[in-house]
Amino acid sequence: MAKKQFKAESKRLLEMMINSIYSQKEIFLRELISNASDAIDKIYYKALTDDTLRFDKDHYFIKIEVDKENRLLTIKDTGIGMSKEDLETNLGTIAKSGSLAFKKENEAKDGHDIIGQFGVGFYSAFMVADVVTVYSKALGSEEGYKWESKGADGYSIVPFDKEEVGTEIVLKIKENNEDETFDEYLEEYRLKGIIKKYSDFIRYPIKMQVSDRKLKEGSDNEFEEVIEEQTINSMVPIWRKNKSELSSEDYENFYNEKHFGFDKPIKHIHISVDGAIRYNAILYIPEKMPFDYYTKEFEKGLELYSNGVLIMEKCSDLLPDHFSFVKGMVDSEDLSLNISREILQHDKQLKLIAKNINKKIKSELLSLLKDDREKYEEFYKSFGRQLKYGVYSDFGSNKETLQDLLLFYSSKEKKLVSLDEYVSRMPEDQKYIYYASGESYERIERLPQTELVSDKGYEILYFIDEIDEFAIRMLMNYKEKDFKSVSSGDLGIDADDNKEQSEEINNENKDLLEYMKKVLSSKVKDVRVSKRLKSHPVCLTTEGEISIEMEKILKAMPNNNDNVKADKVLEINPNHEVFQSIKKAFETDKAKVDLFTSLLYNQALLIEGLPLEDPVEFTNDICKVMV
Ligand code: ADP
Ligand code: MG
């Protein structure tokens, strides 16, 4: 028996591939099972067009056999088989993919797809085996053949008596060495696990002898070990089923089976697309946030299948960051099985799928918001912050997608409202969408700065998440209405007489205000008479880009410098008694003005939740007033 050499380039490739392509050796089984399934597909496909062939479903299966003693693992199929020539061309030459050729031949006739287009799958057997023996008999041929190889040094082909059409691949599993154990590939539970993981949705039964503990017949407490043949894979993937056949319970079971989460998903999305690109997907909006969600450890991604075979457990390219909470899977016939991460990133089809999915998630969330507010708010409690991060990040490039999904607490409604709801009930004379930031709804409610806007009857959105104000700055406007902080310098409320009046008072008290500004020196940019205060004596407002809330957040960040400061303005209520006493003091007792100014400023800091620069001085100042 003459030993044949692999073609030179094949030999090198074979050596390289064995060591590099797949980091997880366990996928050899996935490759061989996929080939077996392809081979059965081929016979099935032939039967569709050839009247002399009958496709009897029961006759088609894949069988896994283990012979521990001799370290043999066998993968048997009842597929189309290989002739001598097939064995030569398909297994003798790397990168010559029989499946690809078959696919090309049959391209015109749609409806059947065969996994694997790169033709390196079979050789993965050498990752775990010293010797690979293939017994095969092709459909329509009289003779069977035995192909055998020990790896890179070549292969042999001899005739072999084989009764049934199909292929049997026998792997002589490697001995354990210092670095690796191979025994596991002879263990029933391990093989079962690999099959479940990668090949659960192969369309044909994958059978295996498994031992099971069963109740002894006639006994209700005695067990016995029985060995029986079981079908390991569940065969029909839920995503290939018709939506009308499935209940929400089915979807929930799948969610649990897949360990997507411990919660009950708020919503499932079943997508079947049959267009330029074909794919099925089942996506879930979880109810509860995973415990590590807002940490670095959290990894987003969807399971990716190529025609029922798992090729990646967390494909991150399928999900944008702003929807990173979505769980689920995608299966496409148009993706190759032997695809690497690097190739995947540039895969046009994958990009298309990702784009579709992004759109679909958005529209489903919108309809949830419309049709089931309670559920949406439940979802928003867990993941609203992520949506807001999404608005802010990537320079706001996703704000169009996300703005309608945002909710904020409303001063008027006392509950979460959408921007659309806010804008649609704005009175005609209201120019801006108003918001106020603070630590809690209760604290914002009591902020003096909200007084004028509230008195005007305008709604205010309360921001209590750190990200809120940053996101809104990125958004800039919604339906052509700009956002405005109630603490910003100009509120855009034309109480014109009000305005003139306050300017008048400002002028009248110019000297006093200048003096107070000097007392506070670098702490504030200006001291002004307020038009927004009604009952409170003072408040702080800001000018420019950075608000007080933003200053707090930026300061709290590690490695942040103290240079980031809001340009603060101290506003005083001219109608408050305190202002009258300051005015009086200005004429008679400058030391008292100093004291009052510093007290007022510190009060304003406290109201804002800002730290006092010198608490001891502040308490001393209060004592001075008391004695
Ligand atoms: P691919 O599956 O991507 O084509 P493989 O290296 O996995 O590449 O397989 C090479 C070829 O060998 C297949 O295309 C197929 O023609 C043939 N082949 C492999 N395993 C079988 C099998 N069990 N039955 C029939 N043909 C097979
Ligand atoms: Mg293959």
Automatic annotation (TrEMBL):
It is found in: Cytoplasm. The keyword Nucleotide-binding applies. Keywords: ATP-binding, Chaperone, Cytoplasm, Nucleotide-binding, Stress response. CDD domains: HATPase_Hsp90-like (cd16927). Residues 24-177 form the Histidine kinase/HSP90-like ATPase domain. Homodimer. Molecular chaperone. Has ATPase activity. NCBIfam families: PRK05218.1. This is Chaperone protein HtpG. It comes from Bacillus salitolerans.
